[in-house]
Amino acid sequence: MENLIALLIAAPLLGAAVLLVGGRRLDAVGHWIGTLLAAASFVIAVVLFAGLLGRSGDDRTLIQHLFTWVPVESFQADVTFRLDQLSMTFVLLITGVGSLIHLYSVGYMEHDERRRRFFGYLNLFLAAMLLLVLADNYLLLYVGWEGVGLASYLLIGFWQHKPSAATAAKKAFLVNRVGDMGLSIAIMLMFTTFGTFAFGPVFGHVTDASQGKLTAIALMLLLAACGKSAQVPLQSWLGDAMEGPTPVSALIHAATMVTAGVYLVVRSGAIFNAAPDAQLVVTVVGAVTLLFGAIVGCAKDDIKKALAGSTMSQIGYMVLAAGLGPIGYVYAIMHLVTHGFFKAGLFLGAGSVMHGMNDEVDMRKFGGLRKYMPITYWTFGLGYLAIIGFPGLSGFFSKDKIIESAFAKGGTEGWILGAVTLIGAAVTAYYMTRVMLMTFFGEERWKHRATAGESVDGHAAPAEHAAHAEPHPHESPKTMTIPMIVLAFGSVFAGALFTWGSSFLHWLEPVTGHQEGDSPLSTWTITSATFVLMLIGVGAAYAQYGRRPVPAVAPRGSLVTRAARRDLLQDDFNHVVLVRGGEHLTRSLVYVDHTLVDGVVNGTAASVGGLSGRLRRLQNGYARSYAVSMFGGAALLVAATLLMRAV
Amino acid sequence: MNPVNYLYLAALLFTIGATGVLIRRNAIVVFMCIELMLNACNLAFVTFSRMHGNLDGQVIAFFTMVVAAAEVVVGLAIIVSLFRSRHSASVDDASLMKL
C-alpha cells in the first residue's frame, strides 16, 4: 500500500508535464486530462484512506522511501514520503477540493484560449502541495513549498497581459520569498542543532536542544508560515492575489497555499510545544491577523477581496488555535478542513456570479441576484451560514471549538484570546452578511447602470455600449454548479460528521497529540455567547445593507472604513517602512561607499601621484645635476662607511 | 720622501677633477676632468701598492688606463657628433632627456 503514495503526486505532476509540454495539439482535450488526473489522485487518496481506516490508531503511518537524494556524509536527504493521519487529511482536502475546482474551471475558463496551460498550472499546484504535505523531511517539504510558490505565481499572473495581474503575481512571489527565507534558515538551524532534518529524528531529539535554539527554529518556522498563510506581517499579497482567475483564488484559499502555513506549524508541533515563547508569538500573530482580515473584509466592495479578507481572518483562527499547543492542534486542522469546504464554495459562488455578470466584481453593482442564479444563491448561502457559524453547520462546530480552546488556554492570555475570537465571530457575521445582502438581495442595481450611462453620455458610440451593455445574469453551466453543490454539502455536514463521537479528534490525536483544556467558562456559555454575537453581527449588517438601499457609489466613510478599504494601510506601511527605508539605507551606504571607501582609495592614489609629480622635477635633463646627485650619494656612502668604522 | 704626500696629491687632483665635472659646461673640459679623477685614482693605487709592498695596486692602475683609453674613444666620438648636430659642446644644451 505504501507504493501508492508516490502515485498521489505523480498523477498531477504527469498532468502538468503533459499539458505544458504537449503544446497546442492538446488544446481540445487538455482540460479533461488535467481534471481526470486530479480526480485520479483523489481516487488513490480515498483508497489509501480506506486502507488507513482498516488499521489501528497507532499504526496508521505509511512510509515510502523512493531514493536518497543528497548523500553527503552526515547530510542525508531522502526522497521519502510519510502518510499519516495529518497528511491524509490534507491529501483528501487537496485532491478532493482540488478536483472539484478543476471541474469548475472547465466551465469557467471555457472562453479562454490558454485554458490548457491553465490546467497544466493547476496540476502543478496540486502536485507541489501534495509533495509539501507528504514529505518526510524538511528539505523535501521545502521543495514542495517552493513549488507552491512558483505555481501560485504562474496562476495569479495567469492573465499576464493585465499589468495589475503581473504586479500582483510578482508581489505574491516576493512576499513569499521572505517567508521562504525563514524556512530555509529554520532548516539550517535544525541541521546544526540536530544533525538532521527528517521529521522523526528531529521531533525525537527536541529535548536535547537548548531553549534558545528551539525558540529560534520555531520563530523562523512561524515566519515561513506567515508568508504562505498570509498572516501579519506578511499578509499584503493575499488581497492582490485576487487578480488571478477565480478558481485560482478558490484553490489558493481553500485547498492549497494558505493552508501550508497551518500545516507547517501543526506538523512541527513537537518543536513549538518545547518553545512556549514562540507559541505565544504564534497566538498573537493569529489573533492580530484574525481581526485585521475581518476589518478589511468589512470595507471591501470587491466581492473577491471581501472574501480574501475573510480567508485571512479564518486562517488567523487556525494559526491562533495552532499556537495554543496540544489543546488546539486538532481544532486548527478541523477548522481548516471545514473552511476548505465553505471557502471554496464561496469563491466558486463568487466566480459564478462574476461569470453571469460580465466579470463585474463590485458588489455595489450587484443586487437581487437570487432570482437569476438560484443554485449559486443556495450554495453560496449555505457556505455563508457555515462561515458565520450558524448552529448545525460546519463552521459552528469548528469555530466554537477554537473559541473554547482559546479560553481554555487559561489566565489573562486565555481571556484575551477568547475575547478576540469572540469579537472575530461577530465581525465575520457582519461582513459575510454584508456580502450576501449586497449580492443576492436588495434592488437590482446593475439594471440602472446602462441607462445612467446613457444619460451622462448620450451620444456614445453603439459599439462601445455593446461592450458595457447591461449584464444578463444567468445561472452557470453544470460543470460549474456541480462542484458548488458538492462543496455546499461539505459546508453543511462536515462539521457535524467530524464532531460526531469526536471522530476527527480520535483520528488526528495519535499524530498531533491532544489535551483537553480547562475552560473557565462552560461550553454552553461560550456557545450561546458566540450565537448572540453572531446575531448582533448579522443584525448590524442587515440594518445597514438590508433595510436601506445600498448606494451604487461607495460613500466616503469614516476614517477606519477608508483605512480598511486600503487594506488598513498595509501597502503604505510597507512602502514607507520597507521601500523608503530600504532606499534610505541604500543611499546612506552609497554615500559611505563614495566618501569613505572611495576616499581612502582615491586619497592613496592622489598622494602617490602628487609625490611622484614632485620627485619628477629631479629629472631635469642636466647632466651636471645628475653628477651632483652621484657625488652626493658617493659622499654619503663614504661618510656612512667611516661612521660605521668609527663606531 | 713620505709616500703619504702622494696621497694628498691624489686627493687634491680628485677634488679638482670632481669640481670641474660639476661646474664646467664645456663637454671637452668635463671630459678632461673625468680623466683627471681617473688619474688621481691611479696615483692613489700606485701609492698604496708602494706603501703595502705588493703589486695589486699597480695591476689595477693598468686596468684603469685601458678602460680610460676605451672611454676616451667612445666619449670623444659622442662629443664630436654632438658638436656637429648642435654646433655647441655645452653639456647643458643636451638636456632633452627629461619629462
From TrEMBL, chain A:
NCBIfam families: NDH_I_L (TIGR01974), PRK06590.1 (NF005141). Residues 465-476 have a biased composition (Basic and acidic residues). The keyword Transmembrane helix applies. Residues 135-420 form the NADH:quinone oxidoreductase/Mrp antiporter transmembrane domain. It comes from the Bacteria. Pfam families: Proton_antipo_M (PF00361), Proton_antipo_N (PF00662). It comes from Streptomyces mangrovisoli. The chain crosses the membrane at residues 32-54, 89-106, 118-135, 181-203, 248-266, 278-299, 306-327, 375-394, 414-432, 482-501, 521-543, 626-644. Keywords: Membrane, Transmembrane, Transmembrane helix. InterPro entries: NADHpl_OxRdtase_5_subgr (IPR018393), ND/Mrp_TM (IPR001750), NU5C-like (IPR003945), Proton_antipo_N (IPR001516). One of its GO terms (molecular function) is NADH dehydrogenase (ubiquinone) activity. GO terms for biological process: ATP synthesis coupled electron transport; electron transport coupled proton transport. It is a multi-pass membrane protein. Residues 69-119 form the NADH-Ubiquinone oxidoreductase (complex I) chain 5 N-terminal domain. Residues 452-476 are annotated as: Disordered. GO terms for cellular component: endomembrane system; membrane. It is found in: Endomembrane system; Membrane. This is NADH-quinone oxidoreductase subunit L.
From TrEMBL, chain B:
The chain crosses the membrane at residues 6-23, 28-48, 60-83. The gene is nuoK. Its main location: membrane. It is a multi-pass membrane protein. The lineage of its organism: Bacteria, Bacillati, Actinomycetota, Actinomycetes, Kitasatosporales. It comes from Streptomyces mangrovisoli. NDH-1 shuttles electrons from NADH, via FMN and iron-sulfur (Fe-S) centers, to quinones in the respiratory chain. The immediate electron acceptor for the enzyme in this species is believed to be a menaquinone. Couples the redox reaction to proton translocation (for every two electrons transferred, four hydrogen ions are translocated across the cytoplasmic membrane), and thus conserves the redox energy in a proton gradient. NDH-1 is composed of 14 different subunits. Subunits NuoA, H, J, K, L, M, N constitute the membrane sector of the complex. This is NADH-quinone oxidoreductase subunit K. Its EC number is 7.1.1.-.
